[in-house]
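Class, look over these structure tokens:
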Amino acid sequence: MRKRIILDKKAIGRTVTRITHEMLEKSEGCTELCLIGIRTRGVYLAHRIHDTVRDVEGIELPFGALDITMYRDDISKLRWPEVKKTEISFDVNNMTVVLVDDVLHTGRTTRAAIDAIMDLGRPKKIQLAVLVDRGERELPIHPDYAGIVCPVNENEEILVRMSEIDSRDEVVIVKA
């Protein structure tokens, strides 16, 4: 399998820092702001943004992890759906929720995440932060914060590896 690295560890670190600063500038502070990572790698990315906010602003944002399995529009096609734990211990009502995911592709995962959040309450606003926007949207969803925009060919795939579960940080394009 041939691969091409598009972000290495340092580049991912710089990208997380930039996304965090853009989010803070656009939000004009952190009041009523919370982070929710979409399982699996979105949770680790959200955690890094959370830590950067803490380092920059000196505050701890409410943080949660969301599993969207039961909200997928193709769940009936899955033979053995693997449902993981959703951990959101704060009230999302009137909050600005920043959903965080590693890759934005068709928009279906984001739609499922929005549905899951709306079942928990009525946020003031929902924003989307992604490390990679690879295009080819099937739904009218657009990220508020994107690390990189990287369209790929039909026979290519983007893999995000995060040290928390993959033993290294990198974003690569591989030929399928």
Summary: DSSP finds four helices and eight strands in the chain. The chain has a mean pLDDT of 94. The CA atoms of residues 99 and 128 lie 5 Å apart.
